[in-house]
Amino acid sequence: MTYQTIIHEQRESVAWITLNRPAELNSVNLRMLQELSAALTEVAADASQKVLVLTGAGRAFCAGADLKALRGAIDAAPGEPNFSDLTLSTLSQLRNMPKPVIGAMNGLTVAGGLELAMCCDFLVGAASAKIGDGHANYGVFPGGGGAAVLPRRIGLPRAKQLLFTGDLMSAAQMQAWGLLNEVVADSELQPAVAALAARMAGKSPLVLRRMKTIAERALDQPLDLALRDELLECLQHTRSHDFSEGLAAYGEKRAPAFRGV
User: Fold this and answer.
1) pLDDT tens digits, residue range 10-67?
2) What is the pTM of this model?
3) How far apart are CA 167 and CA 115, in angstroms?
4) Cα(11)–Cα(55) distance, rounded to whole angstroms?
5) 149-199, pLDDT tens digit by residue?
6) How far is CA 225 from CA 38, 207, 219, 236, 256, in A?
């Protein structure tokens, strides 16, 4: 696919996807969803792309759905591409990416942009970034996790504050509330994220994938079941190449050569 609304590049072992509609604050239209879905499929299947970074071009990470596209989705005839369904499936692809996903929040992040960000495993924000829900400002109901996921990320009272007021918060405030892992100076965002991604890319892809799966699943399980799942995964992992290679490398005082199997 020839990309018109995103940029997909590989920097060493890290995939970078940049939302690239800066004049529209990287608002999401049908074409962007289709391209993002295609790029995510490629990243998931390519073992050489060990970590994914998602960011935006210009002064926004993502301003949510292009409201003109949303209006068109409501009016779409049967059989035409469905904006809402494609939104849900693409967000699910990102959320279930079997590799670490870092969101580099370079600027305005609102509504569907916040829903997109919450699909990432780690969020690093530029100090100037403004973040909020904003759906209520335009009488739009969230359809990608604004009401369902946000309370799980920052707690119900704070989620209600963002949802009901539509206010924008600073990156520092959102870090204090637990949404962002780190806030850095604007000029340091890409270097900081690149360094973080490189550290993750040096780990065993297999163990990171298994950790991500168990950690996410455990949130919806009773503790005793989650602990049993973790133990079973641990036992299975001991039969992997990466487990044996890690122990051998430790004993031989060398860097491990992980293969993700």
Assistant:
1) 999 999 999 999 999 999 999 999 999 999 999 999 999 999 999 999 999 999 999 8
2) 0.91
3) 15
4) 14
5) 999 999 999 999 999 999 999 999 999 999 999 999 999 999 999 999 999
6) 35, 20, 11, 17, 32
**What's the 3-state SS for 78-96?**
CCCCCHHHHHHHHHHHHHC
Residue 7's identity, in one-letter code, is I
> Distance (Å, rounded) from C-alpha 46 to C-alpha 40?
10
CATH architecture of the domain with residue range 6-201: Alpha-Beta Complex (3.90)
Q: Which amino acid makes up residue 87?
A: T
8, 41, 53: which is closest to 198 by C-alpha? 53
The strand order across the sheet containing 6-11 reads 6-11, 14-19, 51-56, 101-105, 122-126, 182-184
